[in-house]
Amino acid sequence: MKDIAVCRWMVSAYTGRMTKTRNWFALLPFIMLCSCSTMKFYTQAIGGQSEIWHKSRPNAEVLEDPNVGERVKQRLQLIEELRTFATSDLHLSKKSFGKYCDLKRPYVVWVVYAAPEFSIEGKTWWYPLVGSLKYRGFFAEKDARLEAEQLKKKGYDVFMGGVEAYSTLGYLADPVLNTFLHRSDAELAELIFHELTHAKVFVPGDTDFNEAFATANAEDGVRRWLRSKNNLRGLREYEANLKKGRQVIRLMLDTRKKLKDAYAGTYPSVEAVRLAKQHVFEGMLKQAQDISPQVKFHIHHAPKSWNNARINTIATYYTMVPGFERLLKKNGGDLEAFHQEVASMRKLNNEQRMRILGTPASHD
After folding, report:
1. Which of 32, 82, 101, 267 has the greatest number of CB atoms lying within 10 Å of its CB?
2. Which residue has the higher pLDDT, 4 or 44?
3. Are 9 and 317 in contact (CB under 8 A)?
4. Distance, CA of 210 to CA of 353 (rounded, Å)
5. Nearest CA to 8 among 153, 169, 192, 231?
6. How far apart are CA 139 and CA 79, in angstroms?
7. Computed over its alpha carbons, how large is the radius of gyration of the chain?
């Protein structure tokens, strides 16, 4: 899906802290107390993760396999370089991405977002060990579609999209997946650094904080990597692509603010609220045409699917990024000091973290 590609979605795993086989069994009492639908969800999550484990092979073995294509081998060699750089220059662990898994499908999981029809506050789901997250992920597309349909019947705005990668937060050694090898060198570097950042600092229950930190840290990491290779042309192209992406993001965040204001108004009927909502999205589509062809292309992809849930996918990843960029600058670009200050925020509550980052506690 085009807007997912632009915003480089990454998903933190809902199976995040299950580090060893025994941890699956530690969840059994919880699962036994769940409803049938919840039990089914965790069963598919465990099954999907197990499939990835069983299909994964060490990169070194794959690189020696004559039946593996050269393109895959080239990408694995690049990933080995990125893992080394992540450790030596970015102070990130290289525990993950040492194995390769070909799932023979375009996405590893399908994620469902939801929000009330007249609210920008997204629905959250609670998970053991990682707290509340703003999405529900499924290893089978049909299961995600079923969840989306059930939420629609309850009156929610719903958005569903395929995701190419996710992180188990450093508690498992996540493999390289075929789903993201098609990316350019810079995009692949950003993905690897993003996922490794999740293993560095993760705050249970604060999706916006976690994703914005990973986004800001990964983008800075790509710049450092390109400079280390003296790839100035690649750096210019990367910055240009980020600038285009920021145009899309600014428009969506502005639209989200307009929606919030619209829902705070007084209306004579429900239909009047729906009309106000429709006008906001129509205004966004028109404004996209006036900004640039690139913005128009991404905003006008599946135009009828724009709703509160789809807008929230952008807020989750980008609302707080400027705050983290300021924090890195305040630390003089010292990554260790930056990471330590971010890690120190784990003991704070949501409002305190937002105050430090200069972002309203409502994430708007």
Report:
1. 82
2. 44
3. yes
4. 11
5. 192
6. 24
7. 21
Regarding beta strands 125-127 and 131-133, do their DSSP bridges make them parallel or antiparallel, or are they unpaired?
antiparallel
- pTM to 2 decimal places: 0.85
- Give the Cα separation of 121 and 132 in Å (integer): 13
| The residue to which tokens 């020696």 are assigned | 64
**For residue 131, which phi and psi values (nearest 5 degrees)?**
80, -155
- What residue ranges in 23-130 does DSSP mark as E strands? 57-58, 99-101, 109-116, 125-127
pLDDT digits (tens, 9 = 90+) for 24-77: 444 444 444 445 667 788 888 889 989 999 999 999 999 999 999 999 999 999
Burial of 250 (0-12, 13-18, 19+ CB in 10 A): middle
Structure tokens at 194: 């993003």
Q: In this structure, are residues 10 and 214 in contact, taking their beta carbons and an 8 Å threshold?
A: yes
Q: Model confidence over 221-250: pLDDT tens digits?
A: 999 999 999 999 999 999 999 998 888 889
Token readout for 30 is 């919880």
Q: Which two tokens stand for residue 127?
A: 């998970």
Going by DSSP bridges, is the β-strand pair 11-12/166-167 parallel, antiparallel, or unpaired? parallel
DSSP 322-339: HHHHHHHHHTTT-HHHHH
pLDDT exceeds 90 at position 172: no
Q: For the segment 246-256, what is each residue's pLDDT rounded down to a tens digit?
A: 888 899 999 99
Taking a C-beta distance cutoff of 8 angstroms, is the pair 80, 189 a contact? no
Residue 187's closest CA among 221, 212, 210? 221
pLDDT at residue 302, rounded to an integer: 66
- Name residue, tokens 């995040």: 16
Most confident of the ranges 14-23, 170-179, 333-342 = 333-342
Mean pLDDT estimate for the chain: 86
Look at the block and give the residue holding tokens 């983290």.
324
Give, in order, the Cα–Cα distances in Å from 362 to each of 257, 282, 307. 11, 25, 19
Pull the structure tokens for residue 326.
Answer: 């300021």
Amino acid at 183: R
Instruction: Of 299, 255, 297, give the one whose Cα is nearest residue 277.
Output: 255
CA 42/CA 33 separation, integer angstroms: 12
Per-residue pLDDT for 105 more than 80?
Answer: yes
N residues, the chain? 364
